[in-house]
Design brief:
Elements: E1 4-10, H1 14-28, E2 31-37, H2 39-47, E3 54-58, H3 59-66, E4 77-89, H4 100-109, E5 113-116, H5 123-135, H6 138-142, E6 145-148, H7 151-159, E7 165-169, H8 170-173, E8 179-184, E9 192-198, H9 206-216, H10 222-227, E10 231-232
Parallel strand pairs: 1-2, 1-3, 5-6, 5-7
Antiparallel strand pairs: 3-9, 4-7, 4-8, 4-9, 4-10
């Protein structure tokens, strides 16, 4: 009998979860209830008691929830790793971001800078807000910031021309047409995040969730994960 499998997933892996999930539905007859949001927002919902069959969050968030006994033993599986990238609109002049100093200057020179709102709980926004403080340019950049709830919104604001330059995970930029990744954050500013799946102990469609996890980590899909801006962990 077909099952409905509820997935709560961070946006950094949305493109692959959506694509492989659609294939999984066709192959198995199961239905997926996909819920994408920031790591912070999803973690809060889980801590408030919301139920899911498969959870995909940053490795650090899974670590924290695992300590509470939330997940079925042995279900934790790393999916992939993505890095924070810098993007501009397709066809726009490409600023120099080859060194931390050059990247800092590019942010100061830009009329508008897009990143995810740290208050929305996104991993890249939280990181970038701290980075601006470290670089000593938080006040200048935040005066011209275009904040998005998720990385998708950041990429959209660049494509629309509302932001001149922006930063979020490369896996969230690549699916957006009209936006160009000009590189990862340079030098010691480099930032990477691993995304990890786990099946809650209370999952009602546990078998279906394990089957979906096998689909997501099938070695035949590695090239597709790489093309989506994610270094597969399997």
């Amino acid at each position: 009998m077909a099952a409905e499998i509820k997935v709560m997933s961070a946006g950094a892996v949305q493109s692959m979860v959506t694509a492989l999930g659609a294939e999984f539905e066709r192959e198995t007859g199961n239905k997926l209830n996909l819920n994408f949001n920031t790591v912070g927002a999803l973690r809060e919902r889980l801590e408030d008691g919301e139920q899911a069959d498969l959870v995909i969050l940053s490795a650090s968030a899974i670590d924290a929830l695992e300590k509470t006994g939330m997940f079925a033993p042995g279900s934790r599986t790393d999916l992939g790793r993505t890095v924070t990238g810098v993007a501009v609109r397709e066809g726009a002049a490409v600023p120099d971001i080859s060194t931390p100093a050059a990247f800092k200057q590019a942010l100061l020179n830009a009329r508008t800078v897009a990143y995810t709102d740290p208050k929305a709980g996104g991993s890249s926004g939280t990181f970038f807000a701290g980075l601006l403080e470290r670089l000593g340019i938080a006040d200048e950049v935040n005066q011209k910031a275009v904040l998005g709830k998720r990385g998708h919104d950041v990429a959209q604001s660049i494509a629309d021309g509302r932001a001149e330059i922006g930063t979020t995970f490369i896996s969230e930029i690549l699916p957006m047409k009209g936006v160009k990744v000009i590189g990862p954050l340079p030098g010691e500013l480099h930032n990477a995040n691993t995304y990890t799946a786990a099946i809650p102990a209370g999952a009602t469609s546990r078998e279906g969730a394990f089957a979906l996890l096998r689909k997501l980590t099938n070695s035949a899909t590695r090239d597709r994960w790489t093309a989506a801006g994610l270094e597969p962990a399997f």
